[in-house]
Design goal:
mainly beta, Jelly Rolls, four-stranded antiparallel sheet, about 0% helix, about 60% strand
């Protein structure tokens, strides 16, 4: 699977989603079929996210260490890799240095 470099024919939401005092920032993009993705940046730090819907986090640039709720393993993900998060769960994500860029897809 390759991570997309661009999305065509979408609506970009100008208002940013800002979390953790600006250390995680994303913008939503809306597709004609009603689906939504977010494109974001994670600055250095450790953060916890909860999710109601299942998600796929694709790393576009940089790297991060992730621990899914209910698991003990810490897994490093770099550009070109992804991880899935189950619905009604969450994950810890840590960026040690630089900026991790991601695409978050909401799965059905």
């Amino acid at each position: 699977m390759s991570i997309p470099a661009e999305f065509k024919n979408v609506t970009a939401v100008a208002k940013a989603n800002v979390y953790f005092e600006g250390k995680v920032v994303s913008h939503s993009i809306l597709f004609a079929d009603g689906s939504k993705k977010t494109l974001g940046l994670i600055y250095p730090g450790k953060f916890h996210f909860g999710t109601a819907k299942a998600e796929r986090m694709e790393i576009v640039a940089g790297s991060c260490v992730v621990k899914l709720d209910g698991q003990d393993a810490l897994v490093t993900y770099a550009a070109g890799q992804h991880f899935d998060v189950a619905a009604n769960s969450g994950f810890d994500i840590e960026v040690a240095s630089g900026i991790a860029e991601y695409i978050c897809s909401f799965l059905d």
